[in-house]
Amino acid sequence: MDKGLFTFLALLLLSGYSAIGQNIADTVRLKEISILAEAEDKKVIPGNIYEDRAISGLATLLDAYTGIAVKSYGEGSPSTLSFRGTTASHTQLVWNGIPLNLPSLGQSDFSNIPALFSDNISMLPGSPSLIYGSGSFGGNIILENNASWDDRLNVKYIQDAGSFHTSGGYFRLAAGNSRVHSVSRLFYQQSRMDFPYVNTDKAGNPAERRENADYGRYGGQQELYFRTDNHHYFKGILWLQKSRHNIPPTTVQEFHGNKEHQDDFAMRGMLSWQYIQKGRKWDVKAGWVHDDMHYDNDESNLHTRNISDSRIVGAGLITSLASFAGLRVNWDNTYQTAVSESLGNTKSRMISSMLATLELILARGLEVELMLRGEYAGKSFSPLMPGMELKINPWEKSGLVLKGSLARNYRLPSLNDLYWQFDGYAKGNPDLLPEKGITSDLGLDWTYGGQDNIMVNAGFTGFINSIQNMIQWTPSQAGIWAPENVAQNLARGLESRLIISFTNKNIGAGIESNYSYTISTREGENDPLEGMQLIYIPKHKANGRAYLSAFGAEAGYHLQFTGIRYTVADNSRYLPSYILQDVYINKSMSFKNFRIKMELRVNNLADVSYQSVVRQPMPGRNFYISLILEYGQKQSTH
Amino acid sequence: MKSGKILRSLLFTAGLSTAFWACQKDNDPGEVIQTQDKYIYGQGVFIVNEGNFLQGNGSVFFFNEERNTLFKDIFYTMNQRPLGDVPTFMGIWGSSAYIVVNNSSKIEVVNKYNFISSGTITGMTSPRQILKVNDSKAYVSDLQNGGLHVIDLDGLKVSGFVDLGKSAEALVFADNKVFAANWSNFYVQAENNTVQVIDPMTDQLAGEITVTKEPNSMVVDKNGKLWVLCSGGFMNEEIPALYRIDPQDLEIERKIEFPLLESSPTSLKAFAGGDSLIFLNPEVYVTGIEDTVLSSSPFISAEGRFFYSLFTDPVHSWIYVSDAVDFQQEGSVLVFDRKGRKIREVSAGIVPGGFCYTE
User: Fold this and answer.
1) pTM of the predicted model, to two decimals?
2) CA of A423: which chain B residue's CA is closest?
3) What's the rounded Cα separation, in Å, for the pair A135 and A106?
4) Is residue A602 packed enough to be buried (19+ CB in 10 Å), middle (13-18) or exposed (0-12)?
5) Does the beta-carbon distance from A568 to B330 stay under 8 Å?
6) Closest Cα partner for A448 from A439, A458, A440?
7) What is the pLDDT of residues A8-52, one digit of tens each?
8) Would you state the torsion angle of the CA atoms of residues A175, A181, A182, A183, taken in this order, to the nearest 10 degrees?
9) Chain A, window 2-41: residues with a beta carbon less than 8 angstroms from a chain B beta carbon
10) Mode of pairing for the β-strands spanning A345-363 and B106-111
11) How far lies A332's CA from each of A89, A98, A631, B243, in Å?
């Protein structure tokens, strides 16, 4: 194969495009591409963190193992993410190429995403997120599913049980041959989450139990994959999920027995077809995302329902222009609707988006990707969004890579921002402008591996993100709340990571650590909040993990530090920092095609009292036990 | 050789982790607040700051006029715990101050001289205002219950309920009767264009006066007449109006309509002496009790500020206007003399919404 083409395809894939092509072994050398993609641009959450845990929610994982700031109302309750000092609306959740953020709110609830429904969880911070769409000033969280063609039959069952009447179950059945593959998944999670805590906000610091914090969710996902010898690859996935979470009172409220709660139903479906031929990859996809949320509060006689739908079709082409250049063009058309009483009925909009990228290998070890996205939404065009990514790798054997990116980005207002119907207190603003952002980063990455069974990866990245026309709901003189393009934000900081692992025949050990330093402030000479750190964005966040495995047993330790977080825009109040520590030990045993594994985990080992959101207590020390049963048969080798 | 280094690194990490554990104290996980170390009583004004809904950052500030000193978050300072979620009202009778904390469903009772808690009244859903009706009894209006809670002031507990069939907000005492303004129909589905009359001797509903939608505030003038300010409805359904009512026979004596349907007047107060009234719309307006037409020009202009609440003190007849800024940060209180000249500006907490004066 032409080396330039290979490199070009590899770069396109690692830039965030679906790595579906990896399954066509005679067209591209897939394995190398996949490894590059994981090790470089997309920072992947290690699969071994969550693959055997039925109870893991995505928000908890991201909080524990990345530098992303997570604002959580408690395990099982709504959680939003903040990437690189931006807000929750600036993080897009992408599932197999389909964006999942609600068009009404412009955000996703990451507590409601079961980690085990994805084969690959990665995060794509900064400018390269432009490849998946507009508006992700912070970055993207990317969930992907792919066939495991090597498996003829694989059956897996996980049962989790733990403190506070928490349990979770997960079942996966994968079967197929070299052409057709099916994966079926089922899960449930439930908990009373009635943990004890000392309420320091009440007189006498009474010992209380968390009330009305129980939750339950269950769902299923069916995946079908089909490929032909002549380079066609089909993929279809349907994901259905129901959940209910009760809404507990804060530490300064009395519980009256009112079962305030929210019910969610979600349906996500996607179909894609890819055709890979000499130097080209054609791609067509369609998706439908449906969310139906009911909120009920009998005591206050409040009952609301919000329905959101996004229907997406798209097509793309990646092609080689020369041995040193490649082109990608991509088109997506999304039809968004939101139905709720608050919007007066149904509000909708069409968004058409075009992307073109040009990949150039300028010299040995010097690569650049130029990006340009254009978007037509409603009745107007957003300004063009150009971007570039640079990678310099002058000494191939050194493992040292210098990377940088720069992009201009725009985020469309949500449908609530635009069309909230006047209810006496608030109203939307159809004249809102898109938020405008400039994202940039520069980083150095060093990887050492292949000798002495030791792998080392270290890197640090500095970033600067600027947002103008930031949308904020503010009251008018008449006391009516409405969104306006009033605020400016400047986020800058540093991220670093270190991974060291050692593997031998029967033993392994490693440490991993992440640290992020984030200054994210309001800007503008006329802004009385100029220089104030945005609320719920810690300046310091760090986590580390160490593990030791030998002869099928593993013990691990995890530490997470979250710095102070301001809770009020003028920074007059803050939540104190906290350190959480978890430990686990597990043992796996295999008998021919069977595997059995048991794990014991202790979370919050030091029983630290902490809050992620003000007046919302979090659980102290808690215990989990997991049982994993797996049966697998591999395809017979040709 | 390198394997040994890795293992040493792991041991170091484990040791470091143990050190972290040893240093970690099970201390207060709650919000850290900048407070002063004392509270000194004197003649002055208490500022009740509502804070943000569900954030539990409501507070009480005190401006001591004698010392010309502001004391911030005095409930937290003196009791080492937050006041609660959305305090809306404060009343002082004798040495006790009663702070109604709406979304914490409680009333905190403190000694006004040291602000140390002497008890908490619970058992309500969404309390809004409190009115003492005799030495041992008070009424509390509730946004989510169709009536008034009866409070035993000696036992600091709810002792009964006056069923009104409607939610009430403002409470005033006139002609030995209690008048309750039925401001909201959001939670309790009933007409919200009435003022109900309660006999405090029997705790029974004794009458009802129909006014314009959303009567939000009431005062009694020097002649003992009841004045009721109605905003006309949050969807601007009716023209806002100011009513004068005879509390004896419950007759409406005067109705003054505002010029604009879109107006939303609030915070009706009476100057000391009771010969003039003052309210927000959304700037500060003043009207005499004999006027039949409302002034078309503001007495105090907002000049870009967000005037949220209004108060006049009984000693100087000074005017206190709170500026809630954008509701996301600490606000301020502007103080004007009776002629509308600015005297001072003092800091306030988040969403300053209520006042209470002490001599």
Assistant:
1) 0.89
2) B235
3) 10
4) middle
5) yes
6) A458
7) 333 333 333 333 333 322 222 222 222 223 333 566 777 667 777
8) 80
9) none
10) unpaired
11) 20, 10, 40, 60
